[in-house]
Design brief:
The complex is a heterodimer of chains A (953) and B (454).
Chain A: H1 3-16, H2 20-36, E1 60-69, E2 72-81, E3 84-90, H3 103-112, E4 122-123, E5 126-127, H4 130-146, E6 152-156, H5 162-174, E7 179-182, H6 189-199, E8 204-207, E9 214-218, H7 229-238, E10 249-254, H8 259-263, E11 266-269, H9 272-285, H10 297-312, E12 317-321, H11 327-339, E13 344-347, H12 361-369, E14 375-379, H13 383-386, H14 393-397, E15 402-407, H15 412-416, E16 419-422, E17 431-434, E18 440-443, H16 456-463, H17 470-479, H18 486-496, E19 527-531, H19 545-548, E20 563-565, H20 567-573, E21 579-585, E22 588-596, E23 604-608, E24 638-639, E25 643-650, H21 663-669, E26 672-674, H22 675-679, E27 712-717, H23 726-734, H24 742-746, E28 755-760, E29 769-774, H25 784-787, E30 793-795, E31 801-803, H26 813-816, E32 824-825, E33 860-861, H27 867-880, H28 892-896, E34 902-906, H29 913-918, E35 923-924, E36 936-939, E37 941-943
Parallel strand pairs in A: 6-7, 6-14, 9-10, 9-12, 10-11, 14-15, 15-16, 19-23, 20-22, 26-37, 27-36
Antiparallel strand pairs in A: 1-2, 2-3, 4-5, 4-16, 8-13, 17-18, 19-24, 21-22, 21-25, 27-34, 28-29, 30-31, 32-33, 35-36
Helix pairs in contact in A: 1-2, 3-23, 5-16, 6-11, 9-10, 9-11
Chain B: H1 17-29, H2 35-61, H3 76-100, H4 107-130, H5 157-190, H6 194-203, H7 211-244, H8 256-283, H9 291-322, H10 325-336, H11 340-352, H12 360-363, H13 366-393, H14 408-431, H15 437-448
The chains are: A alpha/beta (953), B mainly alpha (454).
């Protein structure tokens, strides 16, 4: 009798009741079985006989691909180690990346490993099989084919993928009564209509900020978050760095603070209705035959000064209008730009499917109401969350009998759908995507799909009765008229990450027409402006812990949104930051905590989208307040006649830093120079050599700096920093910086190694925030080093102040003695067994950079100048037997920076960019008088005020 | 009870050596443990259990339990450490300075003051370990031969601290033990049970009371007392240097070492006074601890308060006179910032309140003295926590200014240490004589023949 039989017999006996013998026998069998379980596995593990080309264990590989934001692509280069994508950086060849990234691109690698991602097909919320879905879908598809698509609807976001557009066009051609609807919650409909008004047909207009010397923004935020942030930021920076000659001048009129307003040389806060009038004033000044603008005195003076400056730099002047302005104002701005011969590119729109325009979400809702929709296919969108609240879409969706949803998450829409399919992450899929300028990229997978997930191409192929994999579909799209050369073209294009010469052609349009204007809007009580969120965008990134914990620019808020209010309005309402306010538009009202933020126009409140998710996942659920509920019909961005009333309740608004506005501190730590003063030869006159210090030298330096091959240093140009946070998230991704969660942030324990401090060098009425990224200063006379009792904080021979994690015992004296407070302490095991929410779950750890230690509880950590990259460069140079090339080592923050404000390099190399910047007249050391001799230094903020507007400077 | 003119320090008309000895030894050897002792011990033991539980929880969970944050990285643990070690100084100073200056009246109070010192140093030494992120590696502060071939980093004030605490603890144990020797022998001789005879016999190290023993003992005791004064000064200077050897406004001040020594004397004497009153009440030692003792100690406290006030003023002046923006801004912050109410309380308790001690009536009124001592101890604790909070909450990096919000665990760790102190003190009261019998006998001798010694 085998042991198994014995156990079976005994177990049967056990049901009758055990006697002593049987109990002993059971025990013996148990031991025998458990010993047997310790066998070696039968599989044999064989090393590679022939190594796959390029794959060296532990050596990173880089691949070019592209990532979407609001449907537009930004080219990226993804670093993959041992088959795992771990870090995203920009693709220098891609016009919407230019080698830089934004927060969304940086953070998307974390989303790949999100355990909350949808992993299986769901039928009414229960796990189902692909066969089940096929069985359910087949009769629907047959009916669709038979009836020409009658009763079938496809809902998508913005489509810029040529392959997907081709598939959709083919499907629509086959089924004449099939209707395609598109809804992009962050769409700028007014801009589209405005372009239509001005040019008579849909076109896209792209500003070329790098050519502009005078810029007037009318509630536009070109430097703010969005698919064009990097391109605009780089363009803006061209004329802000003193080395490039003329300094541009930026005038901003806006309703609520934005990054553009923060960087503006002159900023005026006005309600949206009056901003439209400012456009009228400028247009009249340029000779437009329009009615008089109704503007208050200050605004009139501002508009006049801006107009004069615009006219002065005709050909290099540009006016931009934002989402909150009506189509007529957009059209008027096109007219103004034409008059100014502004550097804008008018191109064919890139998000068209053939010649078709999509039907709207409202059309779909109307048809759903009428019961005209039987089958609804929702691809990569989440209308149940982000449709306007006034539509109340969920019960209407349910009126379609068959609702199929393809999405990354089993989200709000998946819950309202009858069938849900998991969608592959862009880093797992083959596809293609266009940037705002039309330049296409091939999206290539870095990893096989982690789950049995599908792409939009798969779904559309299935609907059209084909079964081609995405790879073939994408190749088919691009192999047209390539002939023999296609393979070479394909390889080169995949390598470059950009399809050559694929930018949208210039639109052949005439002079923009002067629109007829509606009468001036009466001021109608408090207005509310909505914004896409600088961290979670429209909510699609709500389950990304890095983004949730990224301090929002200017306010430094994390883990939530808040109602921005001017001080005067807050006082009138009787609220302070943290008091809950009920915000109502028409029928809907939401309760949201207030955040008093100078810079709002009187009578204007602001909110961001993307919060209050209920099915985002463990990270994003219940964070913040859903503001889509306020929307009435579509992508509304401004609301008149909102009601604001105080609710007797408080909700803490979590912030990571305070804005520094104490005059003496700002003057000392964030000096501001004017372009005029700089031109006259004034500067900070900081010594370019080593700063004086009374602190003693390190005793008996084991690795003397003199003989070392390198001396690393960083210079950060605060004039170029637009506060976009890309560096913060890049650092987090590169260095395995843990997320601590809202409770720990409330206790003041955020972990980001790099923070962006905000200094307000204006007044409460006219705030002028400036941004100062603060990594470790790597002081030559580092105050953290002599106080560490166990020598865990030490200096290396190349000038790095290094932290030896496994020597650290956690006295925290180093941070207590750090005048810059750049060190971060693991009060709990944030990355080491005590993670926030589900951050400890697989497969999150797969994202971690294997070249950087994951720090344990009780250990101090801080910015290392990306020492792993320095080390890699050193090893590469040693291997090749050459000196490290000049500026070959870049830090993660430097790579990410859209404006190239961060420069890192070796002081021992005379040609290094840091050496040039250290001779800049704007160069200064933060708290240099303390004698710490920081290696990270700054270039002062540069402003170019208009002499005519000195009062408002 | 008023003392006769000749018997200033003993409130008994006809004190004899035997009477004095019996008065001290009987509570240990003869009298039953009273209900008061049991209640107090049970309560403090409950706190000890809470403390142990809290430490286990701390080691399992991490110091994130406390209110410390990225800006105010230090909190209660460091304040408690400084407070306890300062209290410890009281006992040492009474025994050393008063021995050296031949203030014989100290005889009736120095024993429990020294006991208090040992306990306070031991407890204070716990905090720097508990406060570590990785307490399991605290021994890396010691220079021991190891495979890493790394020694401590000698420039760090924390390493000096390690040695200061260690040497102070060893010294205070030794000092206590040496002065205990004749009394242990007395207990051995008076003990009735074999167990007690054995216990005290072993501890008495064969003391026979020979003239040579007395002579050697006296010499050693005075030598140790001579060592104690610089040791106390250096320990508290080093504690001060923990802060002063930094770059932070409000810490980087050369006045810190002496200022910490003053503070230590001040709070140490307040604690001695508090314990004197309690021990006097608990063990009915009214005859040995008289209002004159309180009077004398009150004068030292008054002097301490004046020294503290001067230190504060010097600090303010230096902050203003430095012209440094961070220092001046911190000064304004002290009086008007987030912790201003605490700061004003600190000034009231440490500077204003002790001025009542100018009145003899207050100095001799024991309930008043107990209240004042308790408030001074609170004031000094507030001072310690504010040294940390104020500077770290308002230093150079203005964007990172943050306040400290204590959690329940912060208070548990403070209360637990008080419980541990009271518990160990109560246990020691039952094991060793609360008053130095041999020194009391000498005091009796001196009091009865004032023309001979003194």
């Amino acid at each position: 009798m085998s042991a198994r039989d014995a156990v079976t017999a005994t177990l049967q006996a056990a049901r009758r009741g055990l006697d002593r013998r049987e109990a002993l026998r059971l025990l013996a069998a148990h031991i025998a079985l458990s010993l047997g379980a310790c066998e070696r596995p039968v599989e044999r593990i064989v090393p590679y006989v022939r190594m796959p080309e390029q794959v060296v264990p532990g050596e990173p590989l880089q691949f070019a691909t592209a990532l979407p934001l609001a449907g537009f692509g930004r080219g990226v280069i993804v670093r993959s180690i041992d088959g795992r994508p771990v870090k995203i950086s920009g693709n220098p060849r891609h016009p919407a990346s230019l080698g830089s990234t934004d927060v969304f691109a940086e953070a998307s690698v974390l989303s790949l490993y999100d355990p909350d991602r949808s992993q299986t097909i769901l039928k009414d919320g229960a796990i189902a099989s692909l066969d089940g879905l096929r069985t359910a879908l087949a009769p629907r598809l047959r009916r669709m084919r038979d009836r020409g698509g009658e009763g079938v609807r496809i809902l998508t976001g913005r489509i810029t993928s040529p392959t997907l557009a081709g598939q959709l066009a083919a499907l629509l051609d086959q089924h004449p009564r099939l209707i395609w609807h598109a809804y992009e919650p962050t769409d700028d409909l007014a801009a589209g209509e405005g372009a239509h008004l001005a040019f008579g047909r849909p076109v896209s207009v792209l500003p070329q900020l790098e050519q502009a010397l005078t810029i007037l923004t009318l509630d536009a935020d070109p430097l703010g978050p969005g698919p064009d942030q990097i391109r605009n930021g780089r363009g803006y920076g061209v004329h802000r760095a003193t080395a490039n000659g003329e300094v541009s001048r930026l005038y901003a009129i806006e309703a609520a603070p934005t990054l553009t307003g923060a960087k503006a040389d002159h900023r005026l806060a006005l309600p949206p209705a009056l901003i439209a009038e400012a456009a009228v004033a400028v247009a009249r000044g340029l000779g437009a035959d329009l009615r008089e603008a109704t503007l208050p005195e200050e605004a009139r003076g501002f508009a006049a000064a801006a107009l004069a400056a615009l006219q002065q730099s005709r050909g290099r002047a540009i006016v931009l209008a934002g989402r909150t302005l009506p189509p007529e104002t957009h059209a008027l701005v096109h007219w103004i730009n034409a008059r100014l011969a502004a550097p804008v590119r008018v191109i064919e729109p890139v998000d068209r499917v053939g010649t078709r325009e999509a039907a709207s979400l409202n059309d779909l809702v109307r048809d759903l109401d009428q019961g005209a929709v039987e089958t609804l296919v929702m691809i990569g969108c989440n209308p149940a969350y982000d449709a306007p609240g006034a539509i109340d879409i969920v019960p209407k969706l349910r009126r379609a009998a068959f609702r199929l949803h393809l999405g990354h998450y089993a989200d709000e829409t998946a819950a309202a759908a009858s069938w849900h399919m998991p969608q592959s992450h862009p880093l797992e899929s083959w596809s293609d995507i266009r940037a705002t300028c039309g330049t296409a990229s091939i999206v290539q997978p870095l990893i096989r799909p982690l789950y049995a997930s599908y792409t939009a191409h798969d779904l559309l192929a299935t609907m059209s009765g084909a079964a081609d994999p995405s790879y073939d579909l994408v190749r088919k799209t691009w192999s047209k008229d390539k002939g023999e050369d296609f393979e070479r073209w394909w390889t080169a294009t995949l390598h470059d990450g950009v399809v050559a010469d694929s930018a949208a052609p210039p639109a052949k349009v005439g002079e923009p027409a002067l629109p007829s204007l509606p009468p001036p809007a009466e001021p109608t009580g408090p207005a509310l402006v909505l914004r896409p969120d600088p961290a979670v965008w429209d909510g699609t990134h709500a389950n990304n812990a890095w983004l949730q914990e990224t301090p929002r620019p200017i306010t430094r808020q994390v883990w939530g949104n808040a109602l921005g209010l001017s001080m005067a309005d807050a006082a009138a309402l009787g609220v302070e930051s943290g008091d809950v306010v009920r915000v109502g538009t028409g029928a809907r009202a939401i309760d949201v905590p207030a955040l008093v933020e100078p810079g709002h126009a009187r009578g204007v409140a602001s909110l961001t989208l993307g919060y209050g998710r209920i099915r985002a996942g463990a990270i994003g659920n219940g964070v913040g307040v859903d503001t889509f509920l306020l929307r009435q019909t579509g992508a509304d961005w401004v609301f008149d006649r909102v009601t604001l009333e105080k609710v007797e309740r408080r909700e803490e608004v979590l912030t990571t830093q305070r804005k520094v506005s104490e005059e003496a501190r700002v003057a000392e730590m964030f000096p501001v120079l004017t372009a005029a003063a700089l031109a006259e030869g004034q500067g900070l006159h900081a010594a370019s050599g080593p700063l004086p210090s009374l602190l003693p030298d390190r005793p008996a330096d084991p690795a003397p700096t003199e003989g070392a091959p390198s001396a690393w240093a960083m210079v950060i140009d605060t004039a170029l920093c637009i506060g976009c946070n890309a560096c913060v998230v890049a650092c987090q991704a590169e260095n395995n910086v843990p997320v601590v969660g809202p409770e720990e942030v409330a206790r003041g324990r955020e972990m980001q190694w790099l923070r962006i401090d905000v200094y307000d060098h204006g007044t409460p009425e006219h705030p002028k925030p400036g941004f100062q990224p603060v990594p470790c200063m790597h002081c030559e006379k580092a105050p953290c080093e002599p106080v560490c009792p166990v020598a865990a904080s030490v200096h290396d021979g190349e000038g790095l102040n290094v932290q030896v994690y496994n020597r650290c015992i956690g006295t925290r004296f180093c941070q207590a003695n750090c005048p810059y407070k750049v060190r971060r302490f693991n009060f709990f095991g944030y990355a080491d067994g005590q993670e926030y929410a589900n951050l400890g779950l697989d497969p999150y750890p797969a994202q971690r950079n294997p070249e950087v230690t994951v720090r344990a509880r009780g250990v101090m950590e801080k910015c290392t100048y990306c020492i792993q990259r320095i080390s890699a460069a050193r090893r590469a140079a040693a291997r090749d037997g050459v000196a490290t090339p000049t500026d070959a080592v870049t830090t993660a923050c430097q790579d990410a920076c859209p404006t190239r404000a961060i420069v890192f390099g070796d002081l021992k190399q005379e040609a290094a960019a840091v050496n040039r910047l250290k001779r800049d007249p704007r160069h200064y050391a933060l708290l240099g008088h303390l004698g710490t001799q920081p290696r990270t230094t700054y270039l002062a903020e540069l402003r170019n005020p208009d002499p005519k507007l000195e009062g408002n400077a | 009870m008023t003392a006769e003119p000749r018997h200033v320090w003993i409130a008994s008309p006809e004190p004899g050596y035997g009477e004095v000895t019996a008065k001290v030894a009987d509570p240990i050897l003869v009298r039953r443990v009273g209900r008061r002792w049991w209640i107090a011990t049970a309560l403090s033991f409950a706190l000890v259990l809470v403390f142990i539980g809290a430490i286990v929880h701390l080691f399992n969970t991490g110091i994130g339990l406390w209110g410390v944050n990225t800006t105010v990285v230090w909190g209660f643990a460091i304040a408690n450490y400084v407070w306890w070690i300062a209290i410890a100084s009281g006992g040492t100073l009474i025994s050393s300075i008063l021995v050296l200056t031949r203030q014989e009246w100290r005889s009736s109070i120095n024993r429990f003051a020294e006991t208090m010192t040992v306990l306070a140093v031991a407890i204070s030494g716990l905090y720097p370990i508990l406060h570590l992120g990785r307490p399991q590696y605290f021994y890396w502060l010691a220079p021991y031969p190891n495979t890493m071939q790394v020694w401590p980093q000698w420039r760090s004030a924390l390493v000096w601290d390690f040695w200061a605490i260690t040497s102070y603890l060893l010294f205070s144990i030794l000092f206590l033990y040496v002065s205990l020797l004749p009394d242990l022998a007395t207990l051995r001789d008076r003990a009735r049970s074999g167990l007690a005879q054995g216990f005290y016999g072993v501890l008495a190290l064969g003391w026979r009371g020979s003239a040579r023993h007395w002579q050697l003992h006296r010499r050693l005791h005075v030598t140790l007392a001579g060592l104690a004064v610089p040791l106390v000064a250096s320990v508290h200077s080093i504690v001060g240097l923990d802060f002063a050897a930094s770059l932070m406004p409000g810490w980087q001040e050369s006045i810190f070492p002496p200022y910490f020594v003053f503070g230590a004397v001040f709070s140490g004497f307040a604690m001695v006074l508090l314990l004197a009153a309690l021990t006097r009440w608990g063990l009915a030692l009214d005859e040995m601890i008289t209002p004159d003792h309180f009077d004398a100690m009150a004068k030292i406290i008054l002097a301490g308060s004046i020294a503290m006030t001067c230190s504060y003023i010097a600090e303010w002046f230096a902050a203003w006179y430095s012209g440094e923006e961070a220092e001046r801004s911190l000064l304004v912050y002290l009086f008007t910032g987030d912790y201003a109410p605490l700061y004003w309380t600190q000034l009231a308790f440490n500077c204003l309140l002790p001025q009542a001690l100018w009145w003899r009536g207050v100095r001799r009124h024991i309930p008043a003295m107990v209240a004042i001592s308790a408030l001074i101890l609170i004031g000094m604790w507030i001072e310690r926590i504010l040294i940390i909070w104020n500077t770290l909450s308002h230093e150079y990096a203005a964007a990172m200014w943050r306040t400290f919000h204590p959690t329940l665990w912060d208070w548990v760790f403070f209360a637990g240490s008080l419980g541990l102190f009271v518990f160990l003190y109560l246990v020691l009261l039952r094991l060793v004589p609360a008053v130095s019998m041999h020194e009391m006998r000498r005091l009796v001798h001196a009091e009865s023949k004032p023309w001979q010694e003194r």
